[in-house]
Amino acid sequence: MTTDEDVSTDDDGVAAPDAMTLTEHLAELRVRIIRSALAVAVGMVLIIAFYDQVLDFLLQPYVDLCTRKPQDFCDPELFVFSPTEGLSTRVRVGLYGGIVIALPVILWQVWRFIVPALNKKEKKWAIPVVSISLILFVAGGALAYVTIGQALDFLIGWAGADTGALFSVQSYVSLIGLMIFAFGLGFMLPVFVFGLQALGVITPKRLLQSWRIALVAIAVISAVITPSGDPVTMAMLGVPMVVLYFLAILLGWLVVRRHPAEV
């Protein structure tokens, strides 16, 4: 029979995987989800408290586009077309911003849920992996913010020369929010690629040999997760993902060569 002294725990007081039942695994998962949800809720409150400033920041690329273009190309003001749209938009902005603010907590909770199954040498990657994931997500989101103007220019142009653009605030917020998350998640691809190498699931040599498949996969991913669907935005996402993919292979190769017994 297993006694209390025989059960090892992690830093949060959670039993190690070899001493945990399925019910205990589910209980731990629930704890991680609750902590992440609370972090998102706090982030939502902060974003909603500064909603006007956040909305002005999100609108700036569209305003800049309308300023550059002829007067009848687009209207820099956004509108609401239903009594509830203003409230739903505020909640949506709060949710998007809350997730971004809570991202460090979310990534850390995901890592803490996975880490008990890793060996001691694999656990040392916790802080680097979480930190690099955050940096890459922010970089991808920033690129999406910078390129949203080009995406809107492309999309509005398809409407025809005799039409002008008039958007609802909800449709605009949805587009830019999805673009930020799509680019952010796309930029986190090298973390996943490096993780597979560090865990020994696949070797850098095999990844390098499969570069043609990787390019096709990245092109498909860019097309699927890019909300605007225009070739300029897809290229803006796909090209950095290709570069990051090969950088991840290089980093994985350095780690495998230096610590062949750990992967």
Number of strands: 0
Helix content: over 70%
Proportion of β residues? under 5%
Determine the number of helices (DSSP H or I, runs of at least 4 residues): 10
Low-confidence stretches: 1-8
How many independent structural domains? 2
- The helix-strand sequence is HHHHHHHHHH
Biggest β-sheet strands, sense, barrel = none
Brief account:
This protein has 263 residues and is mainly alpha-helical.
Keyword list:
single chain; 263 residues; 2 domains; 10 helices; 0% strand; flat; disordered N terminus
Structure explained in plain terms:
The chain has 263 residues and is mostly helical. It has two domains: 7-49 and 80-117, no CATH class; 120-263, no CATH class. Helix content is 72%, strand content 0%. Helix 1 (22-49) runs antiparallel to helix 3 (85-114) and helix 7 (189-198) packs parallel to helix 10. It is flat. The relative contact order is 0.11.
Please render the helix and strand layout as text.
Blueprint: H1 22-49, H2 51-68, H3 85-114, H4 120-123, H5 126-157, H6 169-187, H7 189-198, H8 204-209, H9 211-225, H10 231-258
Helix pairs in contact: 1-3, 2-5, 3-5, 3-6, 5-6, 5-10, 7-10, 9-10
